[in-house]
Design goal:
With 308 residues, this protein is mostly beta strands. Helix content is 8%, strand content 41%. It has one helix and 26 strands. Strands 1, 2, 4, 5, 20, 22, 23, 24, 25 and 26 form a ten-stranded mixed β-sheet that branches.
Length: 308
């Protein structure tokens, strides 16, 4: 046997395998976001001194999909100020510090919350009802790298394959065991990615009930150890964070939809953005529109517009 040829062939196979693996890792594309393209109509825009003017009409190009309002964020940037658009409330992140970053979705009820779990030696403790970082004696969940543990007293279950909007009540098969870490993800060895389980977790404690969908383990720079969740209350459960003026304030930009259920921005639906009791644009002004779905920027055919 020619050992030199065998060694050379083996080396070539290793190089090829490494190149293929590198290609898959470097070209990996997240399943989050949407391929929808938003069209903006400013023909009816008004920019006078009133505080309820129509700003824009937004619709989708052809071959679009329905998008959940709970996963959407719509912002208007005028000058150096960003104004959130929603059905009622927006996030108030001014002065918010710590390793928990909650942001309210366009529906006004669902938070998309990012946890900084980069410290592998200590936990980030999370007060879920208040959407704030807490401490080791007052928390619902604690995070470190991929590890997530629930506090004692939290009952939980997992609704496999469900969307957040489909979970409207607490299931009957709740689990009271919080001694083990939450197995909330699978690991894809082919691309070395952490992929959250497809479904919704339900957490209950002290007569408060929440549904949680893990979106990703990565932040918008694709850095790991930033688990991000969508969180909403179940049934008529109280959600203290929604009543915290340090987190939530009335939205200065109001979304008007003619769909009665307000669960989805339907693929064939045109929505309107109005000033909401605040004069955002008086006289000619340039407005930049930013839309995110599942934390990923949505393509817009004309992102920056002049309202005259």
């Amino acid at each position: 046997m020619n050992w030199k040829k065998l060694a050379a062939a083996t080396a070539i196979m290793v190089v090829v395998a490494a190149a293929v693996w590198t290609y898959f890792v470097t070209t990996y594309e997240s399943e989050l976001g949407t391929s929808n393209v938003i069209s903006v109509d400013s023909d009816k825009s008004i920019s006078d001194s009133r505080e309820d003017n129509l700003l824009f009409e937004l619709s989708f190009d052809n071959d679009a999909e329905d998008l959940l309002w709970s996963s959407l964020e719509i912002d208007l940037i005028i000058g150096e100020t960003t104004y959130g658009c929603s059905f009622g409330a927006q996030s108030n992140s001014t002065g918010l510090e710590g390793r928990v970053t909650p942001k309210l979705g366009a529906d006004g009820f669902t938070f998309t919350t990012e946890i900084d779990a980069t410290d592998s030696e200590s936990f980030t403790h999370f007060d879920l009802p208040r959407q704030l970082e807490s401490n080791g004696t007052d928390y619902w969940m604690k995070f470190s790298s991929t590890d997530i543990y629930l506090s004692e007293g939290v009952s939980w279950t997992f609704v496999d394959g469900a969307e957040l909007s489909e979970v409207s009540e607490v299931p009957g098969d709740m689990n009271n065991d919080t001694s083990k870490r939450l197995e909330w993800y699978t690991y894809d060895m082919s691309v070395h990615r952490v992929n959250p389980n497809d479904g919704v977790y339900v957490f209950v404690k002290d007569e408060l009930a929440f549904k949680v969908n893990f979106l990703t383990y990565y932040n918008n720079q694709d850095e790991n150890r930033y688990p991000t969740m969508q969180i909403a209350a179940i049934d008529d459960s109280n959600f203290p964070a929604l009543n915290d003026p340090g987190l939530v304030v009335p939205s200065p930009c109001k979304i008007v939809s003619f769909d009665l259920d307000n669960v989805h921005w339907n693929s064939n639906e045109t929505i309107q953005l109005f000033e909401n009791q605040i004069n955002l644009c008086e006289g000619p002004c340039t407005v930049q529109i930013m839309v995110y779905y599942e934390t990923v920027a949505v393509e817009i055919n004309e992102r920056e517009l002049l309202i005259s």
